[in-house]
Structure formats: C-alpha cells, structure tokens
Amino acid sequence: MEMTLDNAAAVERSPGYWTTVGRRLLRNRLAMGAALILLALILVAIFAPWLMPADPYASSILKRLKPIGTEGYPLGTDELGRDMLSRLILGARLSLFMGITPVLIAFVLGSALGIVAGYAGGWTNTAIMRVVDIFYAFPSVLLAIALSGTLGAGVGNALLSLTIVFVPQIARVAESVTTQVRHREFVDAARASGASALTIVRAHVLNNVLGPIFVYATGLISVSMILASGLSFLGLGVMPPEPEWGLMLNTLRTAIYTQPWVAALPGAMIFVTSISFNLLADGIRSAMEIKD
Known about the structure:
Layout: H1 2-13, H2 17-26, H3 29-46, H4 48-51, H5 84-120, H6 122-136, H7 140-151, H8 155-182, H9 185-192, H10 197-233, H11 245-252, H12 260-288
Helix pairs in contact: 2-12, 3-5, 3-12, 5-6, 5-8, 5-10, 6-8, 7-8, 8-10, 9-10, 10-11, 10-12, 11-12
C-alpha cells in the first residue's frame, strides 16, 4: 500500500511535457539570449515612434553619408542625409512584419492542408500533395522572385509571394508527422470507439503534430526575413521612402566604398535577427526532444 501511495505521489509531482520543455529551454543559454534579442527588437518595433531621435524621412544633401559617431547622428546618415539610427529603428517594424507574417499565414494554411492530407490518405493525400510538390520543386528564392515579379512590387504582393513559398514546405512537414500519428494505437482506439474523424483530429492528432510543425515554422522566419529583404533589395518588395533593412541595403550599396560601416548596418541587423530566430528554433527543437 505504501509503494502504491509513493508511486501515486511521484506521478502527481512529475512535471508535464510542456513544463519539462519550458525548463529545458530556459537552461539553453544560446536560445534564451536569442529570445532576449528578439524581444528587444519587437519592443523597439512597437515603440519606434517614441524611440527615434529624429525624423526618419527628413533628408538633407548637406548631411549625406555622415560617418558613425557624428554629433547628433550616432549611426551616421544615409545617401540622402537621413538619420540612420531612426531609420533602423523604424525599419524593424517592416522587416519583422515581412519576416513573421508570411510564415504565420503559411503555418495555418500549410498545417491545415498537411493534416487533412496525412489523416485522410488515399486519393485526398495524392491530390493535395502533388499540387504541393509542384511549388516545392522550385527553389525558394527563385519562386519568390518569380511570383513577386509577376504580381508586381509592393508589401502586399511580397507577403503573398512569400506565403505561397512557405505553404508547401510546411504542408509537407505536417503531412509527414500526421501520417505517423494516424497509425498510432491511441488513434486506432479512438476510431474503434466510434469517434468521428473531426473529433479524432481535434482531440488526438493536433496535440501531437502542432509542436513539430511549429518548430519547423519558427526556423523559416529567418529564411522569410532574408527573402523579404532580398525582394526589397531587388525592388520587388517595400518601396521607397519606407525604411526597411533590405531596401536600405539597396539604396546604400553605392556608399560601400565611401562609408562602408554605415552601409553595412542594415545587413548587420538582418544577420543578427536571422541568426537569433535560428538559435531560438534550434533551442525549442532540442527542448522538445525529451527521451524517457
């Protein structure tokens, strides 16, 4: 009787899966450092109007390409004499928006398509996945450029292009993990008990597949930021005079020989943000790999 009580108390005291994941993630210094950087960038983007020291759109030919450390311009000025610090701060809004939004939309659409295909199987799986494979066959960069070039420049068209790029990738992952879960014993037991397909998906499948899909999607945010910046650099994304890190790289490319440090600032922001998303995604993935 005492052993039974001890075992029950041990089970009661044992943390749940997500509690264990959270604790493992908190012990990962690289992931937590990346998370703090991303949190700081998000806060900067939210409170940009109150953090900017100057008007990011005010230009002055007399003040163009001032070096870093110039009085009144701690990060110098761009090719039109606009304050680089203010434009980098405000540019965080569009850059993060262009990086996160396509992946978030693709996560919803791709997960839905992949889960339906993986659980239904048969001709439904074949029909959905063959269409997905058509888009997945193209390299992400080439597909994003082709779609944006066809749709035209602009934030909306760039978001649509990037979403189309990421939906097939997430759908393939969702279909793969759903197919694995569909053959598990607890799903067979629920099906034998007479539960409907919708009930089984909602109660049993989603809990087991959304985690891996979310981790994969988190890693795509860095790719989305780089692709969005690349589209803006090519003139297919954000249009002037809006500050966006990729667009700023494009407009400052002619200053690389006169003020290389100023011209490199937007690229440094893209690099730091992208690597932070990658480190956070790797940390979440490692934390979720809990072995008994």
